[in-house]
């Protein structure tokens, strides 16, 4: 193929090229992009997109125009792969994974797709030829923040790994118009701003209005006599249209492209017309707003469900559309009794669990399948992942609400429950305590459907997300179910994608690794083990330390531009980034900072003995979570005092850049020395930030919780700062009665820190501001911050001592990198395939 055009003069042009004629091609030759891509071909396509899609010339194009045209061009190349991939997979009849998740925290797409499609080089050349600063376009991108935290980011890592492994799969979710709010601070307090991520255009998505599905709500059920069998039928009251928006999910340089299909709610034409004809135009418009509200906003609650009707509407909306969509892909004459051979629906926590009665309804009511057969099919088609241990995070839906919104589904849930409880009785007799315990329907405080129980009864497998979590799930959260269905329970430890979180986020370390062991690690992360001997190589250690120093400079550039902040020169960079929740114990970190500060100002610690540190926080609080917001206020208040007190001479800094998101994580994590993973043991299901830090050569200070346990086992005790109570110890003191005030009384250091906060030292003398935080710690302290304080302080002293030996620290950091290959999401996905899905990759 000849080169399309030379250079880039900005003129309007349309380059017509024809593929080599192939008699067996499914359609006549079409103008095509060149594969492999060339800079000239890329440039030509970029200009075409700029001119014809954007309607501007290069000379007149704004940054946004250029960004959109670049994104489109990248998507065009991926689309070539996608079309070829679809052709290869058509007719393969392979079993697919449908990943059902209410959240996908995707992060920026441009670099990810350039990397996966191996387009970074040509894109850079093309932009240079056009006189465009590629980095400026990178900075222009707004990430789709369609998730809250760990669960949504995990889903994004998983779809990356599914594509890279070549597993047939579709991710299904919701295209929220407003993603997770943008956090700002006013006087140190969180203020939420809308995240209007779509306003400047959404070049990565492709609307597919022709593939819209209708989703129904409300109404009533009636029974009909169908040739002697009594059947129930749903007469819904209102419909909305679900319009799919597709995102390409490219595998890493393997020609595979999967789909992420996100649904947007639109008013149906029929609905509009009916009201329009009644002459009430205003109401017709109101109805449209009502329907479109369903995909308007992501609920910013992470772990405390609000039980809002709109949220249930969202959940049903996306799973009903997804199930229909998937079934529509099967051949017309497909025998639905064989559905389990073709699909597994993975339930990402309880949010999509309403899919269970929906599939039953479709099979029984719409396809006339017998109940028992439909139930057997359904049980094989679902599997459930639990992501929490907090009882308050387990979703329940009042039957009053469910019955009003989805009356037929409630009937189906009742019948599932009836038959399940009959099986329990058959095995254990009329043990009413047990029956009440295991019923899918809770009776108190209101009759409600326990979605986790429904998922457990319906799914073929139930998994936790780290070894400890899966064990606690069996022993503490769902013990009666683990006894009844022992074969269902399994573990899949979480993982993170090495493409985004090492290869892209840490180019310096990536190059160092590749120079040492080749680039196979990008898709085979266990190969990082080959780095182990290099921990003893002084030259490698020096190079590794230089990369870390470079990453700190890079972070400073980002922080400076973003927030006017910077990490201190020569400082230990101590990072705690995650959602704000009391169980994660940001307060413990604050107490450490306050203790160090108090130590210096009171003269107990000589300034020269203080290890210079920058403590960096990133955390959003759910808007309705008052205590979390107070803790944010406290962190900012402590920062303003500590950062400006001349007695500290800048040796202790607290930075809290607002709006922590995936993009900021990509700058922060590679620069960190110390990773704070300090949740109360038994509360953090897994954590995934912990894995990202260790893979980027930060050492962890952490409790024996979630995946910390597995990280420590792999990296070794010498390379991990363990502290605090174990889960059984926590359970024991909780049992005996926990008295936080006793710890306050007994520990002078703790007393000084708390007293300083209580004194108003961080609130301009106003003692009332943080009084609720202080009294909560002293009289309730549900997550036992005070009980772990002294162990934490001692562990931080070990950190300081270890950091003083820079070469030893670097050795430990290298071993962290070398030993954390296990935490690739590729490995997690292989575990899902082996233990749950049985969906082999296709080639
Ligand atoms: C509003 C209801 C609700 C309930 C639970 C919203 C969100 C949740 C999630 C389960 C919270 C969550 O993100 N859990 C996190 O999942 C990660 C991925 O498995 C784990 O690494 C974290 O430990 C867990 O907190």
TrEMBL record:
It comes from Microbacterium azadirachtae. GO terms for biological process: glycogen catabolic process. Its cofactor is pyridoxal 5'-phosphate. Its EC number is 2.4.1.1. Coiled coil: none annotated. The modification N6-(pyridoxal phosphate)lysine is found at residue 692. Phosphorylase is an important allosteric enzyme in carbohydrate metabolism. Enzymes from different sources differ in their regulatory mechanisms and in their natural substrates. However, all known phosphorylases share catalytic and structural properties. Allosteric enzyme that catalyzes the rate-limiting step in glycogen catabolism, the phosphorolytic cleavage of glycogen to produce glucose-1-phosphate, and plays a central role in maintaining cellular and organismal glucose homeostasis. Gene3D superfamilies: Glycogen Phosphorylase B. Belongs to the glycogen phosphorylase family. It is an enzyme of class 2 (transferase). One of its GO terms (molecular function) is pyridoxal phosphate binding. It catalyses: [(1->4)-alpha-D-glucosyl](n) + phosphate = [(1->4)-alpha-D-glucosyl](n-1) + alpha-D-glucose 1-phosphate. Pfam families: Phosphorylase. Keywords: Carbohydrate metabolism, Glycogen metabolism, Glycosyltransferase, Pyridoxal phosphate, Transferase. This is Alpha-1,4 glucan phosphorylase. It comes from the Bacteria. One of its GO terms (cellular component) is cytoplasm.
